[in-house]
Amino acid sequence: MLSSCGRGFRKDPARLGRGYKEKNFGATGRNSGERTLSERKDALQFVSIADIKAFHREYQHMITVRNIFKRYGPLKVLLGVSFSMSRGQKVALVGPNGVGKSTLLRILAGVEAEDRGKIERINGLRVAFLEQEITAESPSETVLAALRRISGVAAVEEKLAKLEEKLDTEETLAAYGELRDMHERMGGFSFPRKARMALDGLGLHRVELGKMMAEISGGERRRVALSAILLGESDLLLLDEPTNDLDLPSILWLENFLRETRSAVIVASHDRAFLDAVVGKVLEIDWHFRMGKMWTGNYTTYFREKSEMLRREREEHTRTEEERARLKETALEKKEWARIGGEQVMPDRDKMSQGYHRDRAERKFGAAAKALEQRADQVKRIHPHAERDPLEIYFEPTQGGDASISLGGVVIGRGDFRLGPMDMNMPYGSRVGIFGQNGTGKSTLLETMEGKLECVKGGVTRGDAVKLGVLSQMNGAIPLKKTAVEWITQSTDIKGEADAIRFLVRFLLDAPAVEAPLEKLSPGERMRIAFAFLMASKVNVLVLDEPTNHLDLEAVTALESAIHLYKGTLILVSHDRAFLSNIQFSQVWSLSDGAIFRETDYASYLERALVEAEREKRAMRRVSF
Fold it and tell me: Residue 173's CB: how many other CB atoms inside 10 A?
C-alpha cells in the first residue's frame, strides 16, 4: 500500500511491477508476499513524486495505433491495424510484399496520412525513418550535410540560431536550453567525428564526409542514411530493410547497436538471423484481412507458433467438419427410416393400424433426425486463417553443349582497384559462393565473369552453350520504363500478352502491378518480376548478386527451394546467413585485401568471418552515439 510521506511515498518496490529495481527500478527477485516482515521492512524506501513519474514515463506506451485504414484508389492496403509500443521495445514487421509494411512505416513516420484511425504519440516523440530507396536532397549535398539533415542535427542547429536572436523571455530561454540539451545528446558539437565512426561501423571506410551524395552508389546512400538515423538519438526507429547492402561485419554491428539502444525499433527485414538477434516481438500484417497481430518472441518463435496455430486450425476444422457431416448423414438415415416406416403397408390393409405405425415412425425417427440436425448446427465451425497459394519459383535450364566457365591467371580491376591473380574452374552444375566484405571486389568479379568488364590480365573462357541469367545488386538490367508484360513478351519466348499475364500472376502479382511501368512498383514487386524474367529465359548459368534484397520472407523461402531444384550453374553473392545455410555449395571463395582464397565450405568461412566481424564490432562498441 501507498502511504503519505511528505513529498513522496514509502513503497515496497516489488509492488511497483516487474521493471522496478530497489533503489534503481529493477527486479527484486521474489514477490513481497513471500518475504518475512523484516525483509519487507528492509525493502521499504523513500520514493519521490519525480521517481514515480519517471517510472511511468519509462513504461507507458510511447505510441498507440488504433484501427488504421489505408487504400490507394480501389486497392485496399491496411484495414484496421492496431497495436501499441513502449520505450525500448524491438518489433519485427512481417508480411508478404504488397501487404502494406512500407505503407504502415510511412504512416507512422508522418510521411503519409492514414485514411481512418488514430495514432497517439507521447509529447515530444522523436521518430526516425529509413526508407528502402534513398535519393540525394540536391546534386551538391555532401555526405556530411546529408548526415546532419537526416539525423535532425541541422534542424536543431537552425532552431538554435533563430532563438539566439531573441533570448528575451523566460519561454525562449527555456526552449533554447532544451534545444541545447538535445543538440548535446545528438553529439552536435562533435558530429563530424561521430559521423565518421558511424560510417566506418557500417562499412563506409572509403566514403569521405565531403563527397557528394549524388556521386556514391544507391547502396552507399542507404548506409549513409542509416548512419544518420542511428546518430539522431530518436525515440522510435522505423527501419525498412536496413540490412540491404550491408556486409556481415556491418550487419553484426547493427544488430549490436539495435539490441543496446534505448530507442524503440520497428524493423521490416527479410533477414531471419538478423530479426532473431534483434527483436522480441513480431507484428504480422495478415495478407487476407490486412489487419495486424502482435506475437511475442523473435522471428523463429513467431514462425514456429504461427505454423503450429495453422496446423491446429486445419486439424480442428477437419475434425468439426467431419463431425457435422457424420451427424447430418445420420439424420438423413433417420429421415429415410421414417419414410420407409410411413410407407409400410400392413398385411391386413388396416388403415388405422397403418396410420399408427406411420405416426410412430415419424415421431421416433423424425424427432431423432431433427435432434441430430440441431446437434450438427451447434457444432462450432472452425474457420482457419486464409492461406494464399504458395509462391513457386523454378528455373529450367537449357540443355546440351558446353556450359562451363573458367578463369585462368585472371587479374580484374576497376579504377585503381585490383583483385587477383586467380584460377577458377566452374563446370556445368557448379554451385559457387563468393563472399567478402563490401568493397573487396565481389560485384567486379561477377561483371568480369559476365563479360561486362575486361580482364586486366588473363582471360575468362565461357562454353559455347552458356546462357547467362543475371540479377545484379542494384537491378540495373531491369527496364524501368517498361511494364512487366512488355519486358516478358519482348525479351523471352512468351509472346502473347494474355500468356504473359497468366505467367506473371503465378508470382502473386495483381493486374495493376503487371501493367504498370516497373519504376512505379515497389522494390519487392520488381524483384519478383526479375525472377519471373529469369524463369522465362531458361538460363543455364544463374548469377545472383544479393538476390534476397527487397524480397519478403515468403519469396526468400521460394527462392531457396528453386535453387535446391536448379540443375544449372549457380554463382551467388549474399550476406543473408539463414538463406546461405540452406544452400549446398560445391565451391566457396572469399575475397580480402585484393586476393581470393578457396574455402573448405560455407560453414568454415562463416565461422572465421564471424570471429573477424566480432573483433571489428568490439572495436566499434567504444563509440558512444
Answer: 12
